Amino acid sequence: SYCRHVREPIDAFRLLLDDGLLRHICQCTLEYARLTEENFQMEMYELEAFLGLLFLKGAMNNKNFPSDLLW
Questions:
Q1: What is d(CA 11, CA 18) in angstroms, rounded to the nearest whole number?
Q2: Angle at 41 between CA 40 and CA 47, to 5 degrees
Q3: What is the pLDDT of residues 19-68, one digit of tens each?
Q4: Distance (Å, whole) CA 36 – CA 49
Q5: In terms of Cα–Cα distance, which of 51, 43, 46, 44 is closest to 9?
Q6: How many CA atoms lie within 13 A of 54 on its CB side?
Q7: Three-state SS at 57
Q8: How far apart are CA 6 and CA 10, in angstroms?
Q9: Would 33 disulfide with which of 20, 40, 45, 53, CB 3.0-4.6 Å?
Q10: In terms of C-beta density within 10 A (0-12 exposed, 13-18 middle, 19 or more buried), how is residue 57 classed?
């Protein structure tokens, strides 16, 4: 029944990763990164973009493809 509302790719993405989970991942990432870089910053849209690229790598079936080339 959830899939009936999917019209755009972002809708499907949000079925997998909701706002609560993304906030938790963002918070944990910031806490870990600030152990070595005190001024580390990351916005939610940056996390979403990075996770989208990881999904793209999986869809391309190429786990060895360098992530920086996807940006």
A1: 10
A2: 120
A3: 999 999 999 999 999 999 999 999 999 998 888 888 888 888 877 888 78
A4: 23
A5: 51
A6: 7
A7: helix
A8: 8
A9: 40
A10: middle
Q: Which residues neighbour 2 within 8 Å (Cβ) at sequence distance 6 or greater?
A: 15
Left if phi > 0, otherwise alpha if psi is -120 to 50, otherwise beta: which for 2?
alpha
Specify the DSSP element, H or E, that contains 54: helix 44-59
Instruction: Fill in the amino acid letter for 69.
Output: L
Which two tokens mark 34?
């600030």
Q: What type of residue is 47?
A: L
Residues 6+ apart with CB under 8 A from 44: 22, 23, 26
